[in-house]
Amino acid sequence: MTKRIALVTGGTGGIGTSICKQLHDDGYQVIAGYYSGGNHEKAQAWQDQMKADGYDIAVAYGNIRDFDSCQTCIDGIRKDFGTIDILVNNGGITRDTTLKKMSPEHWDDVIATNLTSVFYMTRLVINDMLEQKWGRIVNISSVNGEKGQFGQANYSAAKAGMYGFTKAVAQEVASKGITVNTVSPGYIATSMIMDVPEEIREQIRKGIPVGRFGKPEEIARVVSFLAGEENGFITGANISANGGQYMH
Ligand code: CAA
Question: Could you tell me if 78 and 63 are in contact, meaning their C-beta atoms sit under 8 angstroms apart?
Fold first, then answer.
């Protein structure tokens, strides 16, 4: 059987890198989607490092905020590798600030990058998946989409929006062998949480019952589970992995 093809957006980032490695170890042909403001050298260096570490992972450029760029990215993957079987919508940004200071730009940037992109990418792969009657879509949301977070009205709204999208699309494609789920990481030790001022970060850490930040590999394991051939009965679900920070 030929390898299933998995595309991970934001694949060269903190959690993305772990997801790519895990899916590679699961036996898929993995493609890491990257934007990095068009810094192709950075992506090349990432790919070289992966190769040196024993991971044969392809990279594909695409601006997930731009429908045409997503289309070009997916057309290229289709031509070079074939139909995308597994899509992990992982790319995202933060623009943290309290609402009283939030500009329309802070809002639009986060909604476009974290939520509209999920529509673009899913829309562009769904017809192939419907045709082949198999697919896995995993959307990476956040504990802060579940509970809301001070200073993240934009990010919390985008991440919460993913749940509605996931559950609606899951119903539309369930009879065609396609599952659509969300994973909601808590605070994971990546550069994204290092942007939070140290004092606030420490306060957040103290509120995590497990007593530490999560590891990217702990999120990758959940994605791997949902992407699995044998997991066709879990759809429209959300799996939280947050060290007990938020239970509901
Ligand atoms: N709850 C209640 N009050 C809070 C608070 C909280 N969680 N955090 C701060 N405050 C209070 C402060 O004590 C201060 O009070 P006073 O004015 O009475 O002194 C006030 O709010 C500060 O308000 P400002 O609007 O002036 O805020 P600021 O500019 O100082 O900082 C912020 C705002 C940049 C958002 C900062 O609070 C921050 O970085 N918070 C962390 C946000 C966060 O958790 N981001 C997650 C990033 S990681 C990620 O997103 C990944 C993931 O999915 C988990």
Answer: no
pLDDT along the chain (248 residues), means of 10: 93 98 98 95 98 98 98 98 98 97 98 98 98 98 98 98 99 98 97 92 97 98 98 98 97
Residue nearest ligand 1's atom 5 by CA: 150
Phi/psi region, residue 50 (left: phi>0; alpha: psi -120 to 50; beta: rest), is alpha
Q: For residue 2, what pLDDT is reported? A: 86
Residue 245 lies in a domain: no
CATH of the domain at 106: 3.40.50.720
Tell me whether residue 182 is in a domain: yes
Best residue among 89, 98, 190 to mutate for probing ligand 1's pocket (most ligand atoms within 8 Å of CB) is 98
50: in domain:
yes
Number of domains in the chain: 1
Judge whether 113 and 58 are in contact, CB under 8 Å.
no
Whether 155 is a known active-site residue: answer: yes
Which domain range does residue 112 map to? Answer: 5-235
